[in-house]
Amino acid sequence: MKLDVLALFPDIIAPALQTGILKRIQDAGGLTVNVYNLRDWTTDKHKSVDDYPYGGGAGMILKPEPIFAATKELNVESDAHIVFLTPQGIPLTQPLVEALSLENHLILICGRYKGVDERVRQKIVTSEISIGDYVLSGGEIAALVIIDAIARVLPGALGDFESAHEDSFSKELLDHPHYTRPADYEGMKVPEVLLSGHHDNIKKWRHVEALKRTAQRRPDLLQEYDLTDEELAIINKVKQ
Ligand code: J9T
Predict the structure, then answer these.
(1) Ligand 1, closest atom to CA 131?
(2) Which of 14, 53, 115, 186 has an alpha carbon within 20 to 30 A of 155's alpha carbon?
(3) pLDDT of residue 206
(4) What distance in Å separates the CA atoms of residue 109 and residue 50, rounded to the nearest whole number?
(5) What secondary structure, in 3-state letters, does 176-232 show?
(6) Distance 92 CA to ligand 1 centre (A)
(7) In angstroms, rounded to a whole number, what is the distance separating the alpha carbons of residues 178 and 72?
């Protein structure tokens, strides 16, 4: 996958691409990320990327010209999926991450607080995406969140590719608790079943714990989930 980012502060994003899974997947050739400064496509002597809003009001608006020029240059094949990061976008979820990970070419446009000239939305942007119901000072960190979430589901990103699909949200349940050694830490013991080596029982225990955790913390996720009578009974017990 080719991923281009248009940012006003590329330095927020670039160093994070040089570490961990993000670096590994790029080195392995599964992902090419280029981070560009939108200012490089300005033509005036002040290199202005924003301007006052028509009609008045506080805050500055990203000008259309640099974004039109940059996306024209980066999207020569006209096949890119162009994402604008904004709190007004559709919420980022794991299924959306997985859909985006199938694209050949993504261009992420990072905005500022007050937003962008509406003509960019109308003519250039394929999807507007929000990473949650809060406002950031700029879209750079949101872009980084999307890049990280995509990179880890690309083939070859995790040593064990299967594990990405066993995680929270891929099954629409939160994850079960995890333990590692020691089996007894200052009197706090690891549940016996996990030490038993009985794989069926371990699997059942994990599923019950995942259900309980989801019912306690994110009952909204269970509405999408087809529950068996047995699972319903577990959840009702949690509610009591
Ligand atoms: C300026 O961009 C944002 O504030 C932003 C972008 C994406 N998602 C958000 N929740 C906020």
Answers:
(1) 8
(2) 14
(3) 98
(4) 14
(5) CCCCCCCCEECCEECCHHHHCCCHHHHHHHHHHHHHHHHHHHCHHHHCCCCCCHHHH
(6) 11
(7) 48
Q: How far is the CA of 141 from the centre of ligand 1 (A)?
A: 8
CA of 89 to the centre of ligand 1 (A): 8
pLDDT-flagged residues of the chain (< 50): 161
The pLDDT of residue 7 is 98
Residue 115 — left, alpha, or beta (φ > 0 → left; ψ -120 to 50 → alpha)? left
Going by CA atoms, what residue is nearest to atom 4 of ligand 1?
136
Q: Measured in angstroms, how far is the CA atom of residue 133 from the centroid of ligand 1?
A: 8
- Do 211 and 131 belong together in one domain? no
Sign of CA dihedral 126, 129, 135, 137: negative
Give pLDDT, residue 136.
Answer: 96
Q: What is the pLDDT of residue 140?
A: 98
CATH of the domain at 142: 3.40.1280.10
Domain of 189 in residue numbering reads as: 171-239
Residue nearest to atom 2 of ligand 1 (CA): 139
Q: Whose CA is nearest to atom 11 of ligand 1?
A: 87
Assess whether 197 and 142 both reside in one domain.
no
Assessment of whether the complete model's pTM goes beyond 0.90: yes
Say what the pLDDT of residue 209 is.
98
Of ligand 1's atoms, which has the minimum distance to the CA of residue 115?
Answer: 1
Same domain, 224 and 182: yes
Give, using CA atoms, the residue closest to atom 8 of ligand 1: 130
Q: Which of 85, 116, 148 to mutate to test the pocket of ligand 1 (most atoms within 8 A of CB)?
A: 85
**Token pair of 70, please?**
């940059």
